[in-house]
Amino acid sequence: MKKYVLLTIVSAVLLISGCSRPGEVTGPQLSANNIDEVISAMTLDEKILMLKGTGMKSMIGMGTAVGDIDKDVKGAAGTTAPVPRLGIPAVILADGPAGLRINPARKGEDRTFYCTAFPVGTLLASSWDAGLVEEVGKAMGNEAVEYGVDVILGPGVNIQRNPLCGRNYEYYSEDPFLTGIMGSAMVNGIETNRVGASVKHYLANNQETNRNANNAIVSQRALREIYMKGYEMIVRNSQPWTIMSSYNKLNGTYTSERRDVMTDILRGEWGFEGLVMSDWFGGSDAAAMIHAGNDLLEPGLLKRRSGTEPFLWRTLMYLSAECWSLS
Predict the structure, then answer these.
(1) Mean pLDDT per segment of 10 residues, for the chain of length 327 residues?
(2) N or C: which end of the chain has fewer CB within 10 A?
(3) Is residue 320 within 8 Å of 46, Cβ to Cβ?
């Protein structure tokens, strides 16, 4: 199953676009029905590149993009690596969750691309109206289609646990059941447009202070009944395209590096069939993150060490055999 996940997403994007993206044609062209054939035609380098994003050109000193993105959505949070010769397009990821977060101006365009500021998660949940939330999701997803975005990085469904959390307004509730109902409705609404949602930030990301090093100490009962329940309901009810792993540690280990959380529970128990991506710059060990069950590391920097090959390249190559079922 794992080797199909990312190519299944990009084949859906290809079908939505209606045609293959431009580029040199030297092999089978990706469609919904030939994923095995395309995987067999890919080089090892191409497979490794699809496990990571293409960098962030706008962030000075923080890496460069790999590959050419032929779909210009200025201000998008990230992309996947395209393989033009096989008709594999880039997937454009834009931040959310209260609507798209992109720049209104584009190079060579006189038009502007302002996005709707939809009501924040807390306000939507206060309506107690799942039908209304689904309609908001439909409008949000339609805007994504119109502006050329393939996946919205939202909804945010963490529990409002810490009153000082800087992102409480993005989340639905302190109640896991209400969170699950509203999150499911939002995902269903967004994905009626054949664009993806990315449910975040999995798991126990309930404060922003020192979020990259925060260690959430949580009992198994509290984890299951409070912090996981909303995610579980959304996966079972709505089967989102993607889920985003969080920055924080959980009982001493980064969530993005915990195979029990990312694979055993998410995929094994709940039956999640989509793609798991990292939060931007999340985790500390690329190999551990891939082994745990992250399919895509964002934004995918290439940090060189002492003039040697890039660190991420080395670690991803180390696990590429497992991820792509190579002998």
Answers:
(1) 66 60 72 93 93 70 38 84 94 94 87 94 98 98 95 98 94 98 98 98 95 96 98 98 98 98 98 97 94 95 48 50 48
(2) C
(3) no
| Other C-beta atoms lying within 10 Å of the C-beta of residue 26 | 9
Residue 51 CA to residue 298 CA, distance in Å, equals: 9
Question: Which residue in the list 95, 150, 279, 295 is annotated as catalytic?
Answer: 279
SS (H, E, C) 170-188: HCCCCCHHHHHHHHHHHHH
Please give the tally of structural domains in the chain.
1
Residue 279 annotated to the active site:
yes
C-alpha 9/C-alpha 232 separation (Å) is: 21
94 strand-pairing partners? 152
Domain that holds residue 297: 2-323
What is the rounded CA–CA span in Å between residue 18 and residue 8?
A: 16
> What is the pLDDT at residue 235?
98
Amino acid letter, 139: A
Cα–Cα distance for residue pair 182/79, rounded to 1 Å: 27
CA distance 26 to 230: 45
Q: For residue 57, what pLDDT is reported?
A: 59
pLDDT for position 1: 57
Distance CA 117, CA 113 (A): 13
CATH of the domain at 60: 3.20.20.300
How far lies 138's CA from each of 165, 194, 195, 233, 283, in Å? 28, 10, 10, 20, 32
